[in-house]
Design goal:
The complex is a heterodimer of chains A (342) and B (681). Chain A has 12 helices and 9 strands. Chain A has 342 residues and is α+β, with helices and mostly antiparallel strands. Chain A folds into 2 domains: 85 residues; 223 residues, 2-Layer Sandwich (BirA Bifunctional Protein, domain 2). In chain A, helix 1 runs antiparallel to helix 3, helix 1 runs parallel beside helix 4 and helix 2 runs antiparallel to helix 4. Chain A is rod-shaped, with a radius of gyration of 41 Å. The model of chain B has no long low-confidence stretch (mean pLDDT 93). Chain B is of the alpha+beta class and 681 residues long. In chain B, helix 9 packs across helix 11, helix 10 packs across helix 11 and helix 12 packs antiparallel against helix 16. Chain B starts with a strand and ends with a strand. The chains are: A alpha+beta (342), B alpha+beta (681). Chains A and B meet through helix 5, strand 4, helix 8, strand 6 and strand 7 of A and helix 2, helix 6, helix 9, helix 11 and helix 12 of B.
Chain lengths: 342, 681
């Protein structure tokens, strides 16, 4: 067997030192290992160092470098062993050594963004109404008076048209000179759809609407509405009640009942407030009614041929009730702690 | 409208329990808001919709009760005669017939103004009115009885005496009985005497002619003021009264004379005096209303239920409709004068429905099925939301109206002035923000400022991880005056440029895997000059991405810099492939080759990548950028290393290492020729 070279001997020594120091558990074994490898007189490292002289002169710098590396590594091993023996000393010697797997450490969570609760409510409503055959229709938020009022049978003298109750745009910007305003209801979309589509029509429109209330816990000058419209031959109030019951039952997940209370809206006649029965309590659902013949005529339909119903509800109210939010302003403050609750 | 239980009993018997009364009234149109015990009486709060001013008096509510319970109605009789208009000594003239169609005045001389008797003050206090004196109380009592507002003038204080109903003179002022002086404006209805304004018609009386302890002669006004001018005056002056509330909704034109006479009866009873013969009158010619025809078939057609003809006729008659004709098909009726809202057949359908009861309408009829579909736009938005939330970004919602400064600071899309609302949104901005930037009154042209404000709020409460996006419209006026409402996505992030760019690339990759995001230099005032880019895709401008500038950060009061982006949803909709198509997969293994090229600083990854793709050809499955690295000592100043890898794969064979190496050499050569790139081992 060929004699090992100096470098090979160093490697063997390093390996031996590794396994010896790793195994050390007691102060006695530690001292023994220290003398064996790092002893000032007969330590193995010392013995090898003495052989340095026999290494070829050209290889000597490399050998010296390697020797120092190994020496440092063994000294580090000694340090670690000292630490370990001290730790073991201080505690029960039965305790297993080394790192201990801790499955209770938190995982590396991936940060997920959250959809705004209003979006979540809107998606839920679209989903349910979609299943009931209602297609989403969209329209502009800035409207003329025809779509926001006139076609909806809201006469010039109606309080809803008061400039103080609407966000009218400053007229200087309008090229036609006709007044424009931020829509105060999503019913505007009904008119646009009916004007461009012959019956039957089965749509919902959702979106931002605007009324100049000062923001407080229950009011906000911008909010969201959902409006439903169904026009066909032989559509009755019984259909309206049945669709609302299907809707409310789907939304709440169990059988609910619908109640109508008379109300007044210019664009429906008869007009009602619809309530649903939930946990032995009547809860306001929203306004509803049969589309007023004046509205049907305004869009070019014949009220003798078709009838229809419309209903509308405030999305904020639904969302706030659903998630126990008691201040509408929270919805628009966008505190990430708030958003991440949903 | 507060009604007194005891008062109602004057007109109709109330044998039912209170709860039943409240419930049935609510179910027939008078929503019950609450009931309060006041002394020996009950104050029942009923919500009256704006189309039913007839229920703004106890008689009207009593009439509803009589219809619902099918019981008799007993209204007070009158002792004061109608009298003729000719023999009254006070001249009454209407100069503004558009503001007032009918004005009547009766005069009582020798009254003794004193406190009202207890029964009167109790009635009024039940419904929240303070007792003033016997004369004023009589006018208020009749107002709350019939719904017709009345006013008593101290005749001795009227100059002339005469009554002129007119518009205000220029710069005319008026002191109302609240002892405040109001500036009158054109279009308001003034009741004047020979010298000045003595009342604001339909809104409030004047201090100068107020009935006081020394008054002996009174003039009782009962009139019909037009709704819109009354409402405008009340709002402009912020002067609302029970009278203005009723005139705004319209009074019963045929009830004016009744109310005037009833009021005189009460004053004579309570304060004595002598009623002058006759009644001064102006206007008041009532035009006949055409009869209404209700086809019985309409009930089933609209309501979905049958209502018997007898029931229909009973309901209409009880409501005061006078039947002029009835046959198999239809009933013809004249609507009562107090129901100005009944003008069409459909109005009668509603009357029948609400009295017959909406509970009679079933809630389980089979509504026919119909297809519905989700629009592409809707799907794209849903996809975008999914990717952005997956990327850890929360969805925000902010107001559409913003301060002017915000529009000017972030002109992402617009080069025209933003639209101004005549009214600002109140309470939507933090006080300090409004102070700094101005009120929220312009239609926004970018969502970024709103998101930066949300960011500031989150920083202020020391929230970690402020990552926000919003999908909403911006409002872009065009040169031709048209308004474009464009849906956009905006992001604000505390991560770095390439993180946000990566999110945008992910959005694109999901919508259209073949879409390539290109960048162009952008100079936008709110973005840092060295960290902004315009994003383009398929030759169209997708939006912008960049770091907010130091000035913007300071302007918005932000502590740290952030990356913002705003993208056009329309551009994304156009490229979206909502139904991705399968392409066959190669069954052969891929080989990867890494490259490390030294190039000039000016060379962009985009250019290098183009050359790599071109020279690698169809075998390049994926080009993966790894990192950019600068070592001026080894590579020299103005140089950088681009480290990237190529995944190569053939669709018809297993690539050999030699082929891959050859391709790699080609790529290096191309990069060297085109961009002066040098290969590093």
């Amino acid at each position: 067997m060929a004699e090992l070279t100096f470098l090979e001997q160093l490697d063997v020594l390093a390996e031996a030192a590794d396994s010896t120091f790793e195994a050390v558990r007691t102060p006695e074994a530690l001292e023994e290992a220290r003398i064996e490898f790092l002893g000032a007189k007969k330590g193995k490292l010392k013995s090898i160092q003495k052989q340095m002289g026999q290494v070829e002169k050209a290889d000597r710098p490399a050998a010296g470098k390697r020797f120092n590396e190994i020496k440092q590594a063994i000294e580090a091993q000694l340090e670690r062993a000292i630490l370990r023996v001290q730790t073991l000393d201080a505690s029960d010697s039965d305790v297993p050594s080394g790192e201990i797997f801790d499955p209770s450490l938190p995982g590396n969570a991936c940060r997920l963004g959250h959809l705004h609760p209003i979006t979540q409510t809107i998606e839920e409503l679209k989903d349910i109404m979609g299943r009931l055959g209602f297609t989403v229709a969209d329209g502009p938020e800035v409207e003329g008076e025809w779509y926001n009022f006139e076609a909806l049978n809201i006469a010039e003298s109606h309080p809803a048209r008061d400039p103080l109750d609407n966000f009218y745009l400053a007229t200087a910007n309008s090229n036609s000179g006709l007044p424009r305003l931020l829509r105060s209801q999503t019913s505007t979309v009904q008119i646009r759809v009916m004007e461009s589509t012959p019956p039957p029509v089965r749509i919902i429109s959702l979106g931002r609407v605007y009324r100049p209330d000062t923001a407080d816990a229950t009011h906000y000058p911008m909010f969201h509405q959902m409006e439903g419209l169904l026009i066909d031959h032989q559509v009755t109030m019984a259909d309206l009640k049945s669709v609302l019951r299907l809707f409310a039952t789907s939304y709440l997940g169990s059988e609910v009942h619908i109640r109508f209370r008379p109300s007044f809206f210019p664009f429906t006649e008869p007009s009602v407030e619809a309530d649903f029965r939930w946990h032995d309590e009547w809860i306001e659902f929203g306004g509803a009614g049969m589309v007023d013949p004046n509205v049907l005529e305004a869009v070019g339909y014949d009220p003798e041929q078709v009838t229809g119903f419309a209903f509308g509800l405030g999305i904020e109210r639904l969302c706030m009730r659903r998630h126990a939010i008691n201040d509408i302003r929270e919805l628009y403050r966008n505190d990430v702690r708030f958003l991440q609750q949903f | 409208m507060l009604v007194s239980w005891n008062w109602l009993k004057e007109y109709v018997s109330l044998d039912m329990p209170l709860s039943e009364l409240e419930e049935r009234l609510a179910m027939s149109g008078l929503n019950h808001e609450g009931t309060q015990q006041i002394g020996e009486d009950l104050a029942i709060d009923l919500e009256v919709t704006s189309n039913r001013p007839d229920c703004l008096g106890h008689m009207g509510v009593a009439r509803e009760i009589s219809v619902l319970w099918e019981c008799d109605l007993q209204f007070p009789g009158l002792r004061t005669s109608a009298g003729s208009a000719t023999n009254c000594e006070i001249p009454v003239r209407i100069e503004a017939p558009k503001l007032c169609s009918h004005y009547t005045a009766r005069v009582i001389r020798g009254v003794q103004v004193a406190a009202s008797p207890q029964w009167m003050s109790e009635r009024l206090s039940t419904i929240g009115l303070a007792s003033v004196n016997n004369v004023v109380d009589a006018t208020n009592y009749v107002l709350m009885e019939s719904g017709q507002p009345l006013h008593a003038f101290d005749l001795g204080q009227l100059e002339g005496p005469e009554i002129v109903v007119r518009e205000p003179f220029k710069d005319e002022t008026f002191e109302a009985i609240d002892h405040r002086t109001y500036q009158l404006k054109p279009g308001m209805c003034v009741i004047g005497d020979a010298a000045r304004a003595v009342a604001l018609g339909g809104v409030m009386g004047g201090a100068a002619t107020e009935v006081s302890a020394t008054t002996t002669d009174v003039l009782i006004e009962a009139a019909d003021f037009a709704p819109l001018p009354v409402r405008n005056a009340a709002r402009r002056l912020n002067l609302h009264s029970p009278a203005s509330y009723r005139f705004e909704r319209g009074v019963d034109p045929a009830g004016i004379d009744w109310a005037s006479r009833r009021c005189c009866d009460l004053i004579l009873d309570l304060a004595g005096g002598t009623l002058l013969e006759g009644c001064a009158r102006a206007g008041g010619s009532e035009s006949e209303r055409p009869p209404l025809v209700l086809r019985f078939s309409q009930l089933k057609r609209i309501l979905g239920i049958e209502v018997s003809r007898e029931e229909v006729r009973r309901i209409l008659s009880a409501l005061g409709c006078r039947e002029t004709k009835c046959d198999e098909q239809a009933t013809h009726v004249a609507a009562p004068s107090w129901r100005r809202d009944l003008t069409r057949e459909i109005d009668l359908v509603e009357e029948v429905a609400r009295i017959h009861g909406y509970d009679q309408i079933p809630e389980d009829v089979g509504v026919p099925m119909a297809p519905s579909h989700r629009s592409d736009a809707d799907r794209v938005v849903a996809t975008v939301r999914r990717v952005l939330t997956s990327a850890g970004i929360d969805e925000a919602m902010t107001c559409s109206l913003v301060p002017l400064a915000w529009c000017q600071q972030c002109p992402v899309w617009a080069d025209t002035a933003p639209l101004l609302s005549e009214m600002p949104m109140k309470g939507v901005l933090a006080e300090a923000t409004q102070k700094k930037f101005g009120p929220a009154e312009y239609l926004r042209q970018s969502l970024i400022p709103s998101l930066l404000e949300s960011r500031r709020y989150n920083e202020a409460v020391a929230n970690p991880g402020i990552e926000l996006f919003e999908i909403a419209r911006v409002y872009l006026p065009q040169q031709d005056g048209q308004l474009v409402e464009q849906s956009v996505i905006a992001i604000t992030s505390g991560r770095d440029f390439s993180d946000v760019k990566g999110v945008i690339e992910s959005v694109l990759a999901v919508l259209d895997p073949s879409a390539e995001l290109e960048v162009a230099d952008a100079t936008l005032p709110f973005l840092s000059a060295s960290g902004a880019a315009e994003l383009r895709v398929a030759g169209r401008r997708l939006g912008i991405l960049g770091a907010v500038s130091e000035e913007t950060r300071r302007a918005f009061g932000l502590r740290s810099l952030s990356i913002v982006a705003e993208l056009s949803l329309e551009v994304l909709e156009e490229l979206a492939e909502l139904v991705p198509q399968h392409s066959p997969l190669s069954q052969f293994p891929a080989i990867t080759r890494d490259l490390n090229l030294v190039v000039d600083e000016a060379v962009r990854w985009e250019q290098l990548a183009k050359s790599v793709r071109r020279s690698a050809g169809s075998l390049l499955e994926e080009l993966q950028f790894q990192s950019v690295y600068r070592d001026p000592q080894r590579d020299g100043q103005g140089k950088k290393r681009m480290i990237f890898s190529m995944r190569l794969r053939s669709s018809d064979r297993t690539l050999t290492g030699d082929e891959a190496d050859h391709l790699r050499t080609e790529v290096v050569k191309s990069c060297c020729d085109n961009h002066g790139a040098e290969l590093l081992g």
